[in-house]
Every structure is written in C-alpha cells, then in structure tokens.
Write a structure and sequence with these properties.
The structure holds three protein chains of three kinds. Chain A is mostly helical. Chain A contains ten helices and no strands. Chain A has one domain. Helices cover 83% and strands 0% of the residues of chain A. The two termini of chain A are 27 Å apart. Chain B has two domains: 1-79 and 153-231, Rossmann fold (3-Layer(aba) Sandwich), CATH 3.40.50; 91-151. Chain B contains five helices and nine strands; from the N terminus they run βββαββαααβαβββ. Chain B has a six-stranded mixed β-sheet. The radius of gyration of chain B is 17 Å and the shape is globular. Chain C is mainly α. Chain C has one domain (35-171, 181-207). Helices cover 81% and strands 0% of the residues of chain C. Chain C has helices at residues 2-25, 38-66, 69-101, 109-129, 134-165, 181-224. Classes of the chains: A mainly alpha, B alpha/beta, C mainly alpha. Chains in contact: A-B, A-C, B-C. Chains B and C meet through loops of B and α6 of C.
Chain lengths: 224, 231, 225
C-alpha cells in the first residue's frame, strides 16, 4: 500500500540521517541527564522518596526532552524547502507524519532506554522486576508524545518564537500522558508491582485518538 | 523518455486570485496552457511568477478561482517536476541517496537504473557518494534538476532556472530542456530576462503586479515579453 | 443596531434578575451560609464557558472545511469569551473555597482539569499572536483548537482516573450533591442568564472582528489606488 511504503521510505531516511550525525540523540540524552540531576536537588533521594517522586521526575524529564527534541522535526525540512519536494512526491501527506512520528518515537524510546539504568543506579531503584510493564508504558507514552509533538512541530515551524512555542503548546496537551504514565510507573515500581490496565488503556486511547485526528487533518498542517 | 499521449497534461488557471494577508500576489488570472507547450513567464520581482508556479504545482491553494490539470487520465495526480531557488534536496545525504529516496517515494520503477542514468546525464556520477552539503551552487542545482526529472514528469516547473549557473551549466540545461520540450513535456519557465533558456519557449507571457499583461498567444512579440516599462 | 441594544439589555437584565434570585429567592444553604450563593454564578459561568468553547470547536472545524473568514472570527471570539468564563470560574472557586473549606485551592479532579482547560485556550490565544499572516493564523489556530478540544475529555478522564488512585478532598460539591427544588430553579435561571450574556459578548466581539476586517479591506483598496 502506497501510504505505508512511502512512510517506510521516509522513516528510513529519517533514521539514516539521524544515525549519521547522532546529534539529536546525543543532545537529548545529555539533556535528560541534566534534568534528572537538577531535579534530584529538590528532594531528599532516600529510597521511599525516590519511589514516590522518581517516576514523575523521570516522565517530566522525558517530556521536557521531547519538547526540545521535536523542534528540528519540521525546521529541518524548511532549510532547503524539502517539505515541498516531499509533498509533491508523496500521494498521501499522512505518510510524512507517520514516518516522522515513528522516527521520533524511536529516538525518544532510545533515549529512555539509555536513561533507565542510569536512573536506577542514581536513585537505587530497580526496574528489572516489572520490565515488560515499564517497556509497554514507555512505548505507549512515547508514541503519544511523538504524535502530538510532531503535529505541533508542524504548527510551530510556521510561527514566531517557535523554540518557546513548541514546549508551550505541547505540555498542556500532553497532560494525560504525564499523569497516566507516571501513575502506571509508580504502581509498577511499588512493592506489589501491578500493571494498571486501565491506565494502559487510557494511553492507548490517547494514541489512537490523536493518530486518527492527525490522519484526518494532517494535510492541512502542511499547507503553505 | 517521451511523454506518451496519455501522460501529457495541460494546465488551466480560472480567475485565480492569491492573497497573502494584505498583499495580493495574483489577481483575476486566467491562463490556459495546452499540453506540450513550453511557456516562458517573465516579470519583475514580486510580479507573481513564483506564486503562479507554486499554484501550478498545487503546493498552495488559490484564495479564489481554480487551478486544474487537463489530463487524459482524470483522477491521477500527475508527475510534476519542480525546480526552484531552494534545492529541495537534503544536505546531509549524498547525491545518490537523495535521488534513491525521491525515486522510492515517487514509485519510480527500476529506481537504480533511473538514478544512475540521471546522475550520468547531469554529470555528477563521480560525485554521487558525496554529501550534497559539499557541493557548489551549480552542482546542487544539477541534483535538484535530476530530482525533478526522476519520475519522467509530464509537467515541469522551473523557477528562474538560470540563477547561479555558470555559462557551461546553463548551456547544458538549455540542451536538456530542448529535449524535454521536444518530447512533449509541458514546461513553465519563470524568468527575469531573455536568455538561451528563454528562447526555448514556444510561448511567452508577462506578469505585472499579479496579472497577465502580455501574451504571445494574443499577438505580443516574444522579445517584448522581457521588456519592462520603466526598466 | 437596535436589535443589538435590545439583546444586550435583555442579557444584562436577566443576569441582574438571576443575581437577585440567587441572593433573595434561593434559601441559604445549611452549612455554608451566604458565601455558598456564589455557586450559582460560579457553576453557571462554567457551563456557559464550556458551551462557548464547544461552539469554538465547531467554528474551527467549519473554518478548516470552508476557509471562510467568518468562521475564524467566530472561533477567536468564542475562545476569548470561553477563556474569560473559565477565568471567572477559577477566581470565584477559591473565593468560595477559602471561607468554607479553609483552603484556596485543592488539586482535585475537577479543579485541576479546569485549570488545564484554561491553559489550553490561553495557548490558543497566544498562538494567534505569534502568526502574522491572517490566512495562516486562521488555519493553524483552527487546527490547534481542534486538537485542544479533543484533548479536553481525555484530560478530564485521565485526571479523574488519577484522582481515584489518590483521593483528595472534593470541594464545591461532588457529582452526587443534590439541590433543593427552589435552588435548582435559581441555578437554571443563572445558567440561562450566563449563556445569554456569553452569547451577547460573542456577538459584540464577532462584530468587532468583522469591522476590523472591513477596515483592512478598505485600507487595501485605498492603497491600491
């Protein structure tokens, strides 16, 4: 199907470009590290405190990192007006979004997976016991962040003060992701280590809803 | 590489108006371009040439009026080649990678053959594995042209094609355009002034302040298309 | 013009009537006293705000579909009036809460969600100030408006689920709180009054936006000559 093959070609290009320079990944990882360290000064990192504040801190760090990492998404396409070339070549503009969403989700996930062991060491918590649940939450949460973030990156690329605008627009819209992901992570890391399926369902619903909205309205986001 | 009869397309502008806020880039423009015509569109900066071309590519929507393609196959989105001032290729990829990528997107059959052929034609075969970032202006223009020609477009749009090209590259481009014109491709060239490339056109149209003020179809002299009142 | 004045007079009159009813017709609440009467105004404004923001959502969809400037005017108008209503809600809430419950604010489900709702539409208005070209501004803010409105139920749902995990004091009456019949009538009078007043504000603001557009058109025509 043309949409998927276009998206696959675009995704391959995005990943190839990023892995050639790795500038986005490296700066994002370092940024998350900085946020975690800075936040750690705000509470006493004993074991019980870490379990209480840790997940929230982690997801906030991911959200902030994402709001910076998503900036170049469409700005890169403005440099040589490659966006016009993409729009001319591709049948369905949603392919462009699909590819960028998956690429951004991948980069976010990589950052998060790199940060997990670091976080575990710094705060003496263990993710090992509930790893599948944690991974599922990271996946669904990152997908949600990327979906909304990519759409808003397309908007902010056409406005002034875009570096400030993207985080400004993104964070309120992503409230459900922050609230639910944190809660699910907290429960996973608690002594009974339970997966909150209702929370997972909410994340899934968020992702499905916004992917659908983007499918319906994406082409208008790319109009000149 | 001939544009077969089924793929030749004409272009129709019906009372097109394009406004950007308070600025009116095109006003009440009606233009009929039959398939296979090679049109030189002349005009000063700000006369609306670029807007006209972007409307032809359907990259922008008109504020009023319609832009339509007259094609044998009605519902197909025609292959359009667009070469503008911006190269529309990725600096961080090599010439070959860029072309492969766009070939894949456009669904070009036998992509590797086509890419190889185009790289040879534009004279970049020995630099195909260099990043576009390292290319000169002229070389980037050639990559852009190769990209535009990948899908064997039936409609080619060139926004000021001679800019940034030295005499040799300009000649090469003129030769290429002549071949494309002769094979039945519909070509729109937006130009400042008369040149070797301009003389390839079978028709000339002059735009001023967003309207057509002269058309060789309506009897204007071709040379006069490039003469602007008041210099 | 006459119609506008009459509409305005009726709207203001109804608000005055509703206020009178709130103070002098509705019985005083047993435990909270007079301060509880702010509830009529507070909750009615909340409903009016939500209705207005729903109209904003419809206007956004219509603009994306039809691209007629009037839908953009309607959108920004409703967003402004809606945000103003929610601002009133966020201010009257604490005014009510402090004397009754002793706290200005609590992060319960409804308050938190309302705060996020307010921020979403403040962002809508902020976004509009950052795009200069009118057509772009209209389209991009309409698209953001659609995203924001669709997010609202998810925000409310997510925060409510989160709150079920961490129960907090629910102030200003949980969903089950009943109203006595007279109070109910006074409440619905307030709801009607605030909706009418919001509609009046929307109409006036819309006409202002339309005039701005006409002035710009005239300016452009004058410059063209």
């Amino acid at each position: 199907m043309a949409l998927l093959s276009n998206a696959a070609a675009l995704l391959e290009k995005e990943v190839r470009t990023e892995f050639r320079s790795r500038e986005l990944l490296s700066t994002t990882v370092v940024f998350v590290l900085i946020v975690v360290v800075v936040f750690s000064f705000t509470f006493d990192p004993t074991s019980s405190e870490s379990h209480r504040f840790g997940p929230g801190l982690l997801w906030m760090a991911f959200l902030f990192a994402a709001s910076l990492m998503l900036q170049p998404c469409f700005l890169r396409e403005q440099a040589n007006d490659t966006l016009s070339a993409l729009r001319l070549a591709v049948g369905d503009p949603f392919a462009i979004f699909l590819a960028k969403i998956f690429a951004n989700t991948l980069f976010l996930l990589l950052t998060e997976l790199l940060m997990l062991p670091v976080f575990a060491a710094l705060f003496n918590v263990s993710f090992a016991a509930q790893l599948p649940g944690i991974l599922l939450t990271l996946l669904l949460g990152s997908l949600g962040i990327s979906t909304v973030g990519t759409a808003l990156a397309a908007i902010s690329a056409q406005a002034r003060m875009r570096e400030l605008l993207l985080p400004l627009l993104l964070l309120p819209l992503l409230t459900p992701i922050l609230v639910v992901s944190t809660e699910v992570t907290v429960r996973l890391m608690s002594p009974d280590g339970v997966i909150e399926w209702k929370g997972i369902g909410l994340l899934l619903a968020f992702d499905a809803v916004f992917l659908t909205v983007l499918w319906l309205f994406g082409e208008y986001l790319l109009e000149e | 590489m001939a544009a077969t009869a089924e793929r030749r397309i004409g272009l129709q502008f019906d009372q097109v108006e394009k406004r950007y806020g308070a600025v009116c880039a095109l006003r009440n423009l009606t233009l009929s371009i039959p398939a296979g015509e090679c049109v030189a569109i002349a005009g000063r900066n700000g006369s609306g040439k670029t807007t006209l071309l972007r409307l032809a590519a359907q990259l922008i929507r008109p504020s009023r009026g319609r832009v339509s393609y007259c094609a044998a196959a009605e519902n197909e989105k025609p292959h359009i080649g667009f070469v503008a001032h911006a190269t529309m290729v990725y600096d961080e990829l090599t010439a070959a990678e860029n072309l492969f990528f766009f070939a894949k997107l456009a669904g070009v059959p036998h992509a590797s053959n086509r890419v190889g052929q185009l790289l040879r034609e534009v004279g970049l075969e020995d630099r195909k594995d260099s990043l576009v970032r390292t290319f000169s202006r002229g070389m980037r223009q050639r990559v852009a042209i190769a990209r535009a020609l990948l899908g064997e477009p039936a409609l080619l749009l060139f926004d000021e094609p001679g800019t940034g090209l030295d005499a040799e590259s300009s000649s090469w481009l003129a030769g290429h355009l002549r071949t494309l014109r002769d094979s039945g491709c519909t070509i729109l060239l937006s130009l400042h002034g008369e040149s070797e490339i301009a003389r390839l056109a079978t028709r000339g149209v002059r735009l001023d302040a967003g309207s057509v003020v002269a058309d060789t179809r309506s009897g204007a002299m071709f040379q006069s298309i490039f003469v602007y009142a008041g210099g | 013009m006459v119609k506008r004045v009459i509409f305005g007079a009726v709207a203001v009159g109804l608000v005055a009537l509703a206020a009178y009813a709130s103070f002098f017709v509705a019985p005083e609440e047993r435990t909270m006293g007079v301060i509880q009467k702010i509830f009529y105004f507070h909750a009615a404004t909340a409903w009016a705000g939500e209705t207005t923001l729903f109209v904003c959502f419809l206007a956004n969809l219509l603009y994306i579909w039809k691209r007629q400037p009037k839908y953009d005017w309607l959108g920004v108008t409703c967003a402004e009036v809606g945000a103003a209503c929610i601002t009133v809600v966020l201010i009257t809430g604490p005014i009510w809460a402090k004397p009754v419950w002793g706290i200005w604010w609590t992060w319960d489900a409804r308050l938190t969600s309302t705060f996020v709702l307010w921020i979403l539409y403040i962002c809508y208005l902020l976004l509009r100030t950052l795009i200069d070209e009118p057509d772009r501004r209209a389209l991009l803010s309409a698209l953001y408006g659609v995203f924001a409105f669709i997010d609202v139920p998810i925000v409310f749902g997510a925060i409510r689920w989160w709150r079920t995990q961490h129960p907090a004091p629910v102030i200003m009456g949980g969903p089950g709180s009943g109203l006595d019949p007279v109070m109910k009538k006074v409440f619905f009078l307030n709801v009607l009054a605030m909706h009418l007043f919001a509609a009046f504000l929307v109409v006036e603001r819309y006409l202002l936006e339309e005039s701005k557009h006409d002035v710009e058109l005239l300016q452009r025509e004058a410059e063209a000559q």
